[in-house]
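Subject: Protein entry, chain in single-letter code together with its fold tokens

Area: Proteins and the way their chains fold up in space.

Attached in line: The record itself begins immediately under this heading.
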Amino acid sequence: AFERITMLCKYTLRVLRPFVPCFMTRAASSTKLTSDSLTVVDNRDGKSYEIPIVQNTIHARQLSQIQGLRSYDPGYMNTASATSAITNTDGEKGLLTYRGYPIKELAEKSNFLEVSYLLLYGELPDETQLEYFTERIRKHTGVHEDITKLIDCFRHDAHPMGMLVSALGAMSNLYPEANPSLVGQDVYADKQVRNQQIHRLIGTLPALSAQISRRRQGRPYVGPSHQKLSYAENFLYMLDRNSNPDYRPHPVLARALDISFILHADHEMNCSTSAMRHLASSGVDVYSATSASTAALYGPRHGGANEAVIHMLEEIGSIENIPSFMERVKRKEVRLMGFGHRVYRHYDPRAKIIHDCAKEVFDVVGKEPLVELAVALEKHALSDPYFVERKLYPNVDFYSGLMYRAMGFPMSFYPVLFVIPRVVGWLSHWNEYLDDPENNIVRPRQRYVGSPPRPFVSMDQRKTSSSAEIRSVESSESKRRYVAPVPP
């Protein structure tokens, strides 16, 4: 009788739950509820569970007590994978801060290496700290001869990102004393060893990128300047110097690039940053992890957004074609590149800054022909209720591609200009991850939907399956070769 009454009560609670959720939540709990908690009722057995809420998150492991329950979140759309104090984005307010400092203030009042120090070590440096940090970066502004030989092995028209991914991966073999697989997993416990790799990567990357650019142009490589140039100035020097050893880039262009580097230095748990943390969790060396992150950024859905903007503007062609193009966007026939953001629900805080930088660049090198088209497109989008209601505002990629194009960078090089500053963000997260007591190896779960256990079927009893597509592309050259008669 007691069991029947219990079952009746559970059934009654299930029926009433949609109508009186508060009553259901409290009636099902036998303990006193706290304000910072979530009460979950499992309708399969009527049991309730109180889960603590910490900084508006619940720990996924708490769900496992509910009959082994797991959350399913493809693309991590609503999953916090780490605790971090580096970068914060507030999509609703359109805010971006590095260690609490608004990105606008940093772009206006700071420089890239000062911001790099902030991201890596948590506070803005004093004069002595910045001088030491800058000097360590400068001393590592060079490329190992073996890496230079590797770059020479690539075709002159190889994609810059493919070359960069390979070169960074190869660097893991040059410093065995800093490789956990060779000298032990605790090698990075030594902060000085860790800092050496940080300084080396930040210092080497502009020189490595400049070599890749000049390799594609068939020009001899140029080492760092003997002058005390800024980080961006030295990069432009290694890109552009020909016969004049005292060559110095235009200050407006160098400052615009420096600001662009600040804006792109970090952006929370994006795809490539998550890759950095994922690789770090395996204990692999930092160069292999950086190479993997670069490969993630190589993907057009991540690092190719500003290039896609240029392609879109070229497709539109003229201001007169904007209305018809926007109608195609509304019909979902084409995508409006450079507008909207997965994080920001209002104007990307970086967009206005890069817009102003682009204008200054145009004043020096001349206006990029696509600028007027871009301005007209932005004006059209911001006055159209369809785009305003969906909060599709320009993001940082909309004008950065135009600025890079005006500065003479080929579109294939745009992702490299993304990697150079973003390596600072990756290294900041790598640094933070190594000190995190919860830095377990990343091992997501899956929701298995495949076949249940089944016996092996011998070849003569298997039925032909037509569901698998196994054919691959054959070139005309291969077809010519394969039709040759086979000798007896």
Remarks:
- Residues 458 and 464 are 13 Å apart (CA to CA).
